Amino acid sequence: MSPSRAAGAAAGDLPRRSLLLLGLALPALAASGCSAGDAAPRGWNRVLADDVSLLVRNDWEHSPAQDGLALFTDLWREDGGAGQVVAVGTARTASAANALQEGIAALRAALPGFRVASASATAERSGTTIAYLDVASASPDLTGGRLWALAAEGVCAVVLLGAARPDAENRRIVEDSLRLETLSGAPRLAEDWARVGRGATTLGVPRTWSITGAVHGSERWLASWADADPDGFARALVVLCPDTGKQSAVDALAQIEADDVAGALPGFQRAGEPSRLDIGEDDVSALRLAFTYAAPATATAASTAAPRDAEAGTGVLWVLQRNGTDNAAATVSAVQLALARGADESVVEAMEASLWLIPED
User: Fold this and answer.
1) Fewer C-beta neighbours within 10 Å, C or N terminus of the chain?
2) Collapsing DSSP states into helix, strand and coil, what is residue 315?
3) What Cα–Cα distance (Å) separates residue 132 from each residue in 174, 271, 320?
4) Beta strand 44-49 with 193-198: parallel, antiparallel or unpaired?
5) In degrees, to the nearest 5, what angle opens at C-alpha 301 toward C-alphas 298 and 302?
């Protein structure tokens, strides 16, 4: 299960649209999915929710799945338009066929007039078994969609793509991108932590933390997770930038620090000089900068890159660089963790040890 949906912001109602049922034919899946090294289509980015990796559109909002949608934990939602929705969850079985039935049961309990709209099919892709079928419902929010179940190495997950007006091209992109990321070389996480990520950058967060999505008004911090109360009070907040747009970790750190000093992180001050960090990957270099800050009492996890606290807090900025090969440009990403005063600082060491870039194929 991914970080807690109960403490996060509610996913909210989806836009209302007219009924549109899917056809019954199920084309075969592509034999191989996109890898982390493949360029995502313009406007799309790879996300990681626990062990499930897939492409979603950059402008789809990430939030916890609704409480009534059992089994699913993470949700990405289009704001308006055809109301595209992606939901991801971890199944309690090791069989793709059984996981598909778990997904059907969860959707039948949550959606009025739910029905299976096609026969199921199964495909093998790079050691992963994928079972899938089309679904439909009488809900104007989700008139049709496709449900997939993925199983490999004892890990099993379900993914739903649904919409008020299903889009065949969106379905093709999501379907072709689906895979389980067991990340055998990545640092092992404690049982009460989950691996999350965006692009090639992954990290661990406590499962009790909330999904807080992109930082409001920021073009840099596209994903975040927080130790937060239902009212938005955050004791800790970690934000992720999958691509800083800079050519080196040094340049990216300098730009983020300058923005934080200028007000992105109120009261930002260095707590020492940047230091180099070894995360255990030969082609990855990393920098670490500790800092203090003073967030205003009116701030919330949804509106700033820091927890809300009237007194000084602490934090760490990590910048990761996969060195370019064959004249390819380096990819530079960043993760920033801010803790309110009195928060459990052991999370810093655990999160730092969890940092990992998905290797390029």
Assistant:
1) C
2) strand
3) 13, 51, 36
4) antiparallel
5) 100
What pLDDT, in 10s, does the model give residues 87-129? 999 998 989 999 999 999 999 999 999 999 999 999 999 899 9
- Residue 336 makes CB contacts below 8 A (sequence gap 6+) with 221, 238, 239, 256, 265, 305, 315, 316, 317, 318
How far is residue 65's CA from residue 89's CA, in Å, rounded to a whole number? 9
Print the SS3 string covering 134-173.
EEECCCCCCCEEEEEEEEECCEEEEEEEEECCCCHHHHHH
Digit-coded pLDDT (tens) for 318-354: 999 988 655 456 789 999 999 988 778 899 999 999 9
Q: With beta carbons less than 8 A apart as the criterion, state whether 90 and 157 touch.
A: yes
| Residue 195 and residue 204 in contact, taking contact as beta carbons nearer than 8 Å | yes
Please say whether the beta carbons of 44 and 53 come within 8 A: no
- Strands 284-294 and 269-270 turn out to be antiparallel
Amino acid at 193: W
Answer whether 164's CB lies under 8 Å from 17's CB.
yes
CA dist., res. 211 & res. 259, Å (int):
24
Q: What tokens does 338 get?
A: 């801010």
Alpha-carbon span 270 to 290, nearest angstrom: 6
3 state DSSP class of 259: helix
What is the length of the chain? 361
Residues 197 and 47 sit within 8 Å (Cβ to Cβ): yes
The residue type of 266 is P
How much is the pTM? 0.81
Closest CA to 171 of 25, 314, 311, 56: 56
Measured CA distances, 12 to 67, 85, 196 (Å): 11, 12, 22
